């Protein structure tokens, strides 16, 4: 079996499946994130027919964690309509950009900054939940607490007593190991010095520490590295744009007009340094009342309006909710809490939207993809 079986049955002749019809059907399958067909995306690498087995080899833009299953099913259905008794196997390979080896974080596929115009809008809460949601879906995820002035990752992940550990390499440089919780690799100023010490650091020092987090941490291969940025615009944001090629930024806001003005500033700051805003998330959008209705305490639809005005995607609303706040205080992001299924769902959906925007961005920018097999 296996190799020999493949050679004997080959795709030539012996099968009574209609190879051309199957190919046509597969070319029409939609990549629902990118909203193009597999044909348009030149995603069909090969189709082999061995007896009654159809093997489909696809090349798709990563990250695939949220869409792999959908595309797999859509391909199976497409073949089933033509050949109901065929056994379909779908193999997916990722299209990867050529990353220069000397680029910082060369083993990281997607770098996403989580930003906000001002503090207290829930940026860190959302960064923690997005990171945990992506990891829960199978992605390899890192999170840098780049809010070096006011680190919150130690609290959000219940790692307040932890100290960054590492070792010296032969040439004497220190290489640190990220902490790990809920499948997320974590680095924070809170693991290096106390919160109070961190608070008195000057801007240039903060940027220096961010460089250390980028260059002297053994991140390894990651699907995503998220950055929980400090609020506003400053040295750190400049460092980010100069040092690393971000895939893009997510801007978190609350619904009020004042917060929305900051969002506009945030989006235009990013575009000035050539960082694309991948989406706006509105937090504390409403309070869900016991009868199922929603109280839009701070007004309705502001985040979505701002996103439309700035021509960037709106990723969704997060309600004001006690289990979200408790999750933060207790160090377990609500997306990990099975007793809060609605909040869990909300963050899984947001993570799926983020993944879709990252894929779209990759489809826009990965001009000459290198193929890496990851069956
Ligand atoms: N959707 C939400 N529902 C309830 N509390 C929230 C929500 N989002 C954030 N919070 C709480 O608001 C406070 C500020 O959130 P945080 O993530 O630290 O904001 P930022 O990082 O923007 O300063 C925290 O106590 C957090 O638990
Ligand atoms: Mg914060």
Q: Which SSEs are present, and which pair or pack?
A:
Blueprint: H1 3-9, H2 19-27, E1 30-31, E2 36-37, E3 44-50, E4 53-61, H3 68-82, E5 87-96, E6 108-116, H4 123-136, E7 141-145, H5 153-156, E8 165-168, E9 174-177, E10 179-181, E11 184-188, H6 195-199, H7 203-215, E12 222-228, H8 235-243, E13 248-253, H9 257-272, E14 277-288, E15 294-295, H10 302-310, E16 314-320, H11 322-330, H12 341-365, E17 370-372
Helix pairs in contact: 2-3, 4-12, 7-8, 9-10
The protein binds adenosine-5'-diphosphate and magnesium ion.
Adenosine-5'-diphosphate is lined by residues 116, 119-125, 152, 283-284, 318, 320-321, 324-325, 328.
Could you describe the 3D structure shown?
This protein is α/β, with parallel strands linked by helices and 375 residues long. It has 2 domains: 94 residues, 2-Layer Sandwich (GMP Synthetase, Chain A, domain 3); 255 residues, Rossmann fold. Helices cover 36% and strands 26% of the residues. The protein has 12 helices and 17 strands. Strands 6, 7, 10, 11, 12, 13, 14, 15 and 16 form a 9-stranded mixed sheet that branches. A 4-stranded mixed sheet has the order 3-4-5-17, sandwiched between helices. Strand 13, helix 9 and strand 14 form a beta-alpha-beta unit. Helix 2 packs antiparallel against helix 3, helix 4 packs across helix 12 and helix 7 packs parallel to helix 8. The N terminus is likely disordered. The chain binds adenosine-5'-diphosphate and magnesium ion.
